[in-house]
Write a structure and sequence with these properties.
By secondary structure, this protein is an alpha+beta fold. The protein has helices at about 80-90, 110-120, 180-185, 200-205, 235-245, 265-280, 290-295, 340-360; strands at about 5-10, 15-20, 25-30, 40-45, 50-55, 60, 65-70, 75, 95, 120-125, 130, 135-140, 145-150, 155-165, 170-175, 190-195, 215-220, 250-260, 305-310, 315-320, 365-380, 390-400, 400-410, 415-425. It folds into 3 domains: about 5-125, lpxc deacetylase, domain 1 (Ribosomal Protein S5, domain 2); about 130-275, lpxc deacetylase, domain 1 (2-Layer Sandwich), CATH 3.30.1700.10; about 290-425, Thiol Ester Dehydrase, Chain A (Roll). It contains 8 helices and 24 strands.
């Protein structure tokens, strides 16, 4: 089978057990899916069997696992099954789930890896989506996780973890993420946790299904399980989690990732940064400046958006602003040290959000968006000439003609501005 063509499972296969956080029993059935379907979860235990795409737009939480949501429908702890799918390079599959969380099984990736191996794969003859790193990328998140990505012919991960615990300490390793290497070096590495945290986690509704059967548990001095599967099992599991979180890109990644203290939060941020880099490299906008000018009333010098890269009606939108030294505001705003005014970053975010709302309105040519309030606005980093700001805006709430949106602006994957805005769509 060609690594450059899409694949799905040849036949359906199921894995059953309890969720590590929910503690609830569930069956996860992997079913074949058509080309370009992607990976989707279907909650067969809920009315209407709602579906959630396993993509970055639907990430809901990264606390002790990666969870997805679409409205009120959630799926917890998706990274283990996604890692196994990525290792097998499965592009399209329907994951029918009879509970809120895939089974944890023994805490590793192996149950899903073996299930996919048992089901077999079908080559669908359609080009697979590939994110190929061509320029170095660096990223650090607030939790302390940091990443450097450089070009490579396949996915290679070099990772370091560092815990102040005598059974873990500092561990480092490099892994080529092929199907064979994943099976022998990562698949059986289990998730881990600390006994001292158990009570606090359960009070928060987490780790309700955790036990020595599915988690490597450490007290203050040692591992409480019989033995480790690898001396550096903790590191290997973290690398497997990174593979699963990167699968939310919906593409094969080709690059060398050097990760220091990786976390689910950092992994998802890295996937978003890689997606942004790939969009900029391809230069494929879904809405160009001519269409933007038809939808928005703004004109020079107040039209601050150059292109829309992604659009999901009544859900989310991604737009870009290319910042040049020729911007008129640089003549009077720190001309000897040019920095884009923070209020204009919010204005640019609002314009991206306005396009999302206008597309939801009937007869948009007769409508205008008025912004009513701003909340939780923060500026994280100066924006200077030469930067490209990528604004990611999503619809948080709608009540009639009043909308609440949330957005972030990023430069090279790092957040420079964020906030929530309330707006009303009105007649001109």
């Amino acid at each position: 089978m060609s690594p450059d063509t899409q694949k799905t499972v040849r036949r359906s296969v199921s894995v059953e057990g309890i969720g590590v956080h929910s503690g609830e029993p569930a069956v996860l059935t992997l079913r074949p899916a058509e080309p370009d379907t992607g990976v989707r979860f279907r909650r067969v235990d809920l009315d209407g069997t709602p579906e959630i795409p396993a993509d970055l737009a639907h990430v809901a939480a990264t606390d002790l696992g990666t969870s997805l949501c679409d409205g009120d429908v959630r799926v917890l702890t998706v990274e283990h099954v996604l890692a196994a799918l990525a290792a097998h390079r499965v592009d399209n599959v329907m994951l029918e789930l009879s509970g809120p969380e895939p089974p944890i099984r023994d805490g590793s990736f192996v149950a899903y890896f073996d299930a996919i191996k048992e089901a077999g794969l079908t080559d669908q003859g359609v080009p697979a989506r590939i994110v190929e790193v061509t320029d170095p990328l660096e990223l650090t998140v607030d939790s302390g996780a940091s990443y450097v990505v450089t070009p490579n012919s396949n996915l290679r991960i070099s990772a370091t973890i560092d815990f102040e615990h005598p059974a873990i300490g500092r561990q480092f390793g490099t892994f080529d993420i092929t199907r064979q290497a994943f099976e022998s070096e990562l698949a059986t590495a289990r998730t881990f946790g600390f006994k001292a945290d158990a009570e606090a986690l359960r009070e928060r509704g987490l780790a309700l299904g955790a036990s020595l059967e599915n988690t490597v548990v450490l007290d203050d001095h040692r591992v409480l399980n019989d033995e480790l599967r690898f001396p550096d099992e903790f590191l290997r599991h973290k690398v497997g989690d990174l593979v699963g979180d990167l699968a939310l890109l919906g593409a094969q990644v080709r690059g060398h990732i050097v990760a220091d203290r990786p976390s689910h939060e950092g992994n998802v941020a890295l996937a978003r940064a890689l997606a942004g880099q790939d969009r900029r490299k391809r230069g494929n906008g879904v809405v160009d400046i001519q269409r933007i000018m038809k939808c928005l009333p703004h004109r020079y010098p107040m039209l601050l958006i150059d292109k829309i890269l992604e659009f999901e009606a009544e859900k989310r939108i991604v737009g870009i602003k290319n910042v040049t030294i020729n911007e008129p505001f640089f003549q009077g705003h720190f001309p000897d040290h040019p920095i884009m005014p923070g209020v204009l970053l919010i204005e640019a975010m609002a314009q991206v959000g306005g396009l999302l709302l206008m597309e939801s309105a009937e007869h948009p040519e007769d409508r205008v968006v008025y912004f009513m309030s701003m909340d939780r606005v923060k500026w994280r980093k100066p924006v200077v000439p030469g930067d490209q700001v990528v604004f990611e805006v999503e619809l948080l709430q709608r009540r009639g003609t009043v909308f609440r949106i949330g957005g972030v602006g990023k430069v090279d994957g790092k957040v420079v501005v964020e906030g929530e805005l309330t707006a009303k769509v009105m007649d001109k």
